C-alpha cells in the first residue's frame, strides 16, 4: 500500500515538474511578456481539471491548444493587472523617495493599498478560469474574496513568498516546480473557499 502511495506521489511530482516546464516554455514562446499570461491561464485551466475532476493527463499538444484559445483574453487580463500594480508601484516609489511631509504620510496608505491589491490579484486568474466571467466581474469578485477571507489570503501570499525564496536559494526548484506548485496552491485555496461558500448558501 505504501509503495503504491509513494509511486503515486512520485507521479504527481513528475507531472508538476512537466507542467512547470510547459509553463516556462510557452512563456518564452510568447517572448516572455506576451507569453506569461496565456501560459499561466492555461496552467490554471489544466490544474482546475486536476483539482475538480481529477484529470492529470497534461500534454504539450493540449497545452498549446488551450494556450491559443486564451491568448488574447489572458493578455487583456494581465495588462489590467500590470497597470494596477504599475501605477501603485510608481506612486509608492514617489512617496518613498520624497521628503515632503504629505508624501511621507502617504507611505503607509499606499503600502496597504499594494498589499490589498496583491490580495485581490491572487484570485483574479482562478476566478477567470473557474467561472469565465467578464473583466469587471472577475476583478470585483476577486476583491470580494480578498476582503471576505483575509486570513486564508494572507496564508497563500506567505506561501508564495516562501516558494519564491526557495526558488532563489535552489534554482532547480525554480525550474521544475515554482510555477506549477504556486498556481496549484492558489487555485486549491480558491476552490476550497468556493466550496465553503456553496455549502453555506445551501444551508
TrEMBL record:
The chain crosses the membrane at residues 16-39, 77-96, 102-125, 134-151, 157-187. The keyword Amino-acid biosynthesis does not apply. Keywords: Membrane, Transmembrane, Transmembrane helix. It holds the Pfam family DUF624. The keyword Coiled coil does not apply. This is DUF624 domain-containing protein.
